[in-house]
């Protein structure tokens, strides 16, 4: 008895075989991942660890509103705050006119 295989199944089988042969590198062990020495929190990379240290342990606020002087830890928070000075309400509800 002869077995017939549709082309779509041949492609799927090839794809599956490729994926099975693909070498997947394991994640670093926790002892090799960047870790905060002060609170022992583990991070996926050094930049996230550095931001954590600045914002949590050093409490640095690098972003200052030029209009009122209020300081923020992240640029996104400053940008959102600046909307209070512009009068812009981009997330206003149409029916109640509330944010």
Short description:
Belongs to the krueppel C2H2-type zinc-finger protein family. With 99 residues, this protein is mainly alpha-helical. It has 3 helices and 2 strands, in the order H-H-E-E-H.
Description:
- The chain is mainly alpha-helical and 99 residues long.
- Among the domains are: 31-60; 61-99.
- The protein has helices spanning 7-21, 46-57, 75-86; strands spanning 63-64, 71-72.
- It has a two-stranded antiparallel sheet.
Overview features:
99 residues; mainly alpha; two-stranded antiparallel sheet; elongated; Znf_C2H2_type; zinc; transcription; DNA-binding
Order of helices and strands: HHEEH
Helical segment tally? 3
Q: Let me know the largest β-sheet.
A: 2 strands, antiparallel
Please report the total strand number as a whole number. Answer: 2
> In which order are the strands of the major sheet placed?
1-2
Mean pLDDT: 75
Low-pLDDT stretches: 17-25
Shape: elongated
Task: Output the radius of gyration.
Answer: 26 Å
Distance between the termini: 70 Å
Alpha-beta classification: mainly alpha
Q: What fraction of the residues are assigned to beta strands by DSSP?
A: under 5%
Fraction of residues in helix: 25-40%
What is the strand and helix layout of this fold?
Blueprint: H1 7-21, H2 46-57, E1 63-64, E2 71-72, H3 75-86
Antiparallel strand pairs: 1-2
